[in-house]
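Consider the tokenized backbone below.
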């Protein structure tokens, strides 16, 4: 289409030049040169805008990992608004998915779930978030499972169908929601063999916060299975920061909340 438009424009310039007695090749060269400069300036400006947004997103992600979820949320909202204004569709969806993660971290679970469902309803979301698909699905399923009455079948379908197409490097991130799904369904005995088989891969690919959360869920599963000594070992391996990491997970999950509330006594003596 662009070639046709340029061809028509060139023909019109040649015709106008001949009518005005001007040098047609020179006129065409000047006009097209001006267009090249104009579009070059526009593209350079767009590129700078994109770079600034990517940098702002990285800074917001760093704040999220540091536990500054509210600051991160505000930064993601600003980035998303700028992306909408600049018509950067891929960045817009990326910032929105990161906003869902920040909402979940803040305990605003229903808002996170609503945003995830809205994003999954867009026909182009899987294409634009292809590289982050595993992370996005992990955020969505985790938020769904933190509802007081989660739809376990919907969460399972999301993990099995959408999680299956996630990039290999991101599949380790699906381990946390998969363990949550098993635990919320009451399949406590299935968590230990799953984590035994996947732990070395998770340890190599996941961050410290996610590993501590997995250790907590592992200990909870062992406790619920009556293996209290093994549960204590898992708690010891998780370190003292495990209670802080539990704050997000206990939302709407009374059984886990009771387990976390008794951690001080539990770590001191077998139940």
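A designed sequence for it:
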């Amino acid at each position: 289409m662009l070639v046709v438009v340029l061809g028509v424009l060139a023909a019109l310039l040649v015709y106008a030049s001949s009518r005005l007695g001007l040098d047609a090749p020179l006129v065409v060269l000047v006009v097209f040169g001006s267009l090249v400069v104009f579009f070059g300036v526009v593209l350079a400006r767009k590129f700078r805008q994109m770079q600034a947004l990517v940098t702002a997103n990285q800074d917001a992600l760093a704040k999220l990992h540091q536990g500054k979820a509210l600051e991160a949320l505000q930064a993601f909202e600003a980035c998303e608004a700028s992306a909408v204004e600049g018509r950067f569709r891929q960045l817009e969806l990326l910032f929105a998915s990161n906003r869902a993660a920040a909402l979940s971290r803040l305990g605003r679970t229903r808002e996170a779930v609503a945003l995830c469902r809205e994003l999954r309803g867009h026909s182009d979301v899987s294409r634009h978030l292809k590289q982050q698909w595993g992370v996005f699905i992990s955020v969505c399923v985790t938020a769904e499972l933190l509802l007081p009455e989660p739809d376990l079948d919907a969460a399972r379908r999301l993990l099995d169908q959408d999680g299956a197409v996630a990039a290999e490097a991101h599949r380790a991130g699906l381990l946390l929601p998969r363990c949550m799904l098993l635990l919320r369904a009451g399949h406590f005995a299935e968590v230990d063999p799953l984590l035994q088989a996947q732990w070395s891969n998770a340890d190599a690919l996941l961050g410290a916060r996610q590993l501590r959360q997995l250790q907590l869920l592992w200990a909870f599963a062992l406790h619920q299975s009556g293996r209290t000594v093994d549960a204590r070992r898992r708690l010891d391996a998780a370190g003292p920061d495990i209670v802080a990491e539990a704050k997000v997970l206990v939302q709407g999950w009374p059984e886990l909340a009771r387990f976390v509330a008794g951690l001080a006594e539990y770590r001191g003596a077998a139940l």
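Residues 19-121 form a domain with the Serine Threonine Protein Phosphatase 5, Tetratricopeptide repeat fold (CATH 1.25.40).
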